[in-house]
Amino acid sequence: MWRNYIKTAFRNLIRYKGFSFINILGLSIGMACSILIFLWVQFELSYDKFNDKSDKLYRLVQTQYYATGPLTTTCMPYAQPIAIRLIP
Q: Can you say how many angstroms the Cα of residue 69 is from the centroid of all Cα atoms in its chain?
């Protein structure tokens, strides 16, 4: 049964080359875009996860509006940095 399905699929691919090319190209572009979006979302969600207290980290940004458009920047440090002692 599966053998007949595969034969029919290959016959249709050979018979309708133009439509097959468009369908396969569209499928491959859609899958590539989906994979890239998944990787981007995974990267954004895993940002700063190496820190033990990653759930308590915040990023403060400042948006300044100019005639040419808005500019978003990070602000100066609001707290003293924690001293890290390296053990040799």
A: 27
- Give the length of the chain: 88
Is the pLDDT confidence value at 77 over 70? Answer: no
- Domain ranges across the chain: 2-74
For residue 80, give Cα distances in angstroms to 37, 59, 76, 77: 37, 15, 11, 7
CA angle (71 as vertex; 65, 76 as ends), nearest 5: 105
Instruction: Give the span between the Cα atoms of 56 and 77, in whole angstroms.
Output: 16
CA–CA separation, 45 and 62 (whole Å): 22
pTM over 0.70: no
* Residue 59: partners with Cβ closer than 8 Å, 6 or more residues away: 74
Number of Cβ within 10 Å of residue 13's Cβ equals 14
